[in-house]
Amino acid sequence: MNSWQFGFQDFDPDDEGRREALCTLGNGYFATRGAAPESTADDVHYPGTYIAGCYDRLTTDVADREVEDESLVNMPNWLLLTFRIDDGPWFDLTHVDVLDHEQELDLERAILVRRLRFRDERGRTTRYVQRRFVHMAEQHLAGLDTTLVAEDWSGSVTFRSGIDGHVTNSGVARYRTLNTQHLTDHHSYESTSDTVVLHARTSQSRVRVAEAGRARVFVDGEPVDAERSLIQQNDLIAHSVTVHVERGSEVRVEKIASVHTSRDAASTEPVVEAVDEVRCAPGFDELCRSHALAWSRLHREFHCGLSMSEDAQRSVRLHLFHLLQTISPHSSDLDVGVPARGLHGEAYRGHVFWDELFVLPTLTLRRPLLARSLLMYRYRRLDRARRAAAAAGLPGAMFPWQSGSNGREESQRVHLNPRSGRWLPDRTYLQRHVGIAIAHNIHHYHRATGDDEFLGEFGAEVLLEITRFFAALTHYDRSRDRYVIRGVVGPDEYHTGYPDHERPGIDNNAYTNIMTAWLCRTAAQVLRELPAERRHELIEQLELRHGEVDRWKRIAQRMFVPFHGDGIISQFEGYDRLAELDWDGYRQRYGDIQRLDRILEAEGDDPNRYQASKQADVLMLFYLLSADELAELLGGLGYPMPADTIPNNIQYYLQRTSHGSTLSAVVHAWVLARSRRHQALEFFDHVLAADIHDTQRGTTSEGIHLAAMAGSVDLLQRCFAGIEVLDGALRLNPLWPTELGDLELTIRYRGQPLNITVTGRTATVRTAPGPAQQPITCACGPRTVQLGPGETAHFSLEQHPWKPDSS
Ligand code: BGC
Questions:
Q1: What is the CATH number of domain 352-660?
Q2: Whose Cα sits closest to atom 5 in ligand 1?
Q3: How far is the CA of 659 from the centre of ligand 1 (A)?
């Protein structure tokens, strides 16, 4: 297998969920899990099709209260295709003697291939090959091509090909007690002799979805007018097609499907569009060609080559592949955010968290329009966030911790601990820091792209309203002569309150406080730098008073930051007074303690009692801010930052973190990269392995971890290669781990495609040839050069060698 191939041998029912998620095919508009086409949801299989941004709400009685949940809806299964030989049973992999089984995801052409050879109960040997795609250029189209070879028998084969609308959202075991039936009002019909159609609508959001499937049959390459019958129920429709095959001959069923909804652009009505689309669609092979062509462009734009390690290269390719299947060029026309688990499963119900913080940099440096459209998802929900702030008695915009269709807070208020079986209050919605992430993304997007139009028209307004909210969240504490923030939750979700206290939330989460100071500074600066006319307009529109901006400036100078010990930034006020956890004891007893919160609760204990974090919290500061930026920020607050602050804090929290979120490994690899390279590479390996090896044991089958996937690429580009955009220049500060071989990547900076190669402390930047345009500024160390199209610059920091750490 080369690094463009990812796959599995044999059939392992226990592992099928993970494989389905990892073999999901999608195009940003919709995605379908890599489930076997003959399967329906059961203990092994979970066919799932999800359309970006298609949510629905359902109410359930849970633990004596009514709970309303919004979920990304599992749509009708267009894959449905099965067969039987003569009058034998319908094909079931577990009832035949499997001679060969192989599933290969061709990452280059974006095709999933399944190769099977089996002997049935009557001793007949059959070869079966299936290929499928979800078209990257034609966003509504997908194809499934099935070839069956009768190796040593002759007889009739009946294929059943159709659309199964009998689906629910039941992919995540712990949500199954909730209401799961989102689709209603199913109708189906046969539109032509080879095409079936099924349409339905979501129950509350009333999105109408229509799917059409066209099936054509070929024997030994020739189309045949096979005998067909129609199977029609309200929520399932299929054609049964019977053909005669001679020993050694080959029968092929080519299925082309289309998926449309009432949310689509350029659409009169979804059923009309779905039927039209399959009627006009060419055959499977022709569609494969245009599909591969669309992907080849994306592969060029997102090229990220590691010369040494084929395994690492394959993982990075897989990560980019799933990133682009979730957020694709089609996304810029859709009103969608970054679903934490991709379009690959139902964990977190397809909700949008702060994870775009880890996803945007990879997109911004290649397809800035995509990053912009993800930011527009937030802009469109600004009014909702204003209303949420107002409901909390505060001005400005309070963005929800979990967002879905309209930007309402979608966090669950109770969650199930599968270990204890108990439903528990969930206070993670108090993660107000999501607003800081949105503001940070806006600022960085603007810095990287120079997109003044976006900032002026949309970004600044969001950023100012978020700042207004955070400023109002702070209280002036006279006794300290400092501003404080009480009752929030930081990125570490284990701490949602003080032990034995009724009041939810913790006080003065250092990350939230320091980033609030950053926000107040940044907002004042953004306002200052806006063109005068736009600045005045915004001030007038937002009724921004002088005193308010002055208060931001004061907060940026007098925000409280808790410390303890020798320069340790306390994760929150009182963190140091919590008990120390017996980490070794827990590891010995439980092995995997990533979900320490569930373990402790099941023991009748409470994670709030311990100095134990789920994920990077204080260390997020070193991830988002450079050492200089942080020192300046803390200095401005009157807290000097001695040189050993960063290593001491890393050491302190490293020992107290269970890495129960895949984001944690991304942040730890980042913050260790320049001091303890070996450890950084270990964390980088964890990031690469997170889904591929399902290191959280059982979570990948419920959807990929998109932020970790995108984060792995960002570690290569911005962390190890040290690429950043600052002060109108592309800056490189490579500290490339040669263990990974050389790096070669393409990015786009200020409209100019660049090819960058990096190894050790050297980098070469080549601009693509093209029509003359403004040269770009590239800098590395003390050297700055201007590069026009078709030019090359070599940089070396060899005179600043990296000193290896002792670890
Ligand atoms: C993490 C959050 C993250 C969410 C979605 C949680 O486990 O703690 O930081 O946003 O997953 O990825």
A1: 1.50.10.10
A2: 340
A3: 11
